Write the structure tokens for this entry.
Amino acid sequence: MIFSRDTSILNVMEPIVGHLFEDHYVKTGLLKCHCEKCRIDILSLTLNHVPPHYTSSQAGEAYVKALYQEPQLQSDILRELTKAVQVIQEHPNHELE
């Protein structure tokens, strides 16, 4: 299959992980470093450890987001986020000021 600009595929886990990260780490001030590089590294590391859920439709996106309203699935993501935060804070990919 050849992808074109008209074809849009989304890993629905990206916005789900992003929102949980924002709510549980960014807004609460729990991060040692708030730079964009550390945030992206934390999100990337987390996304590499949660199962991807790709869709090409809004209905598919809504379905996956509805699934992830379940507390256990959110807890699974938060566990991976916590691990990623610890790794990146211990080994940032930049110089701390």
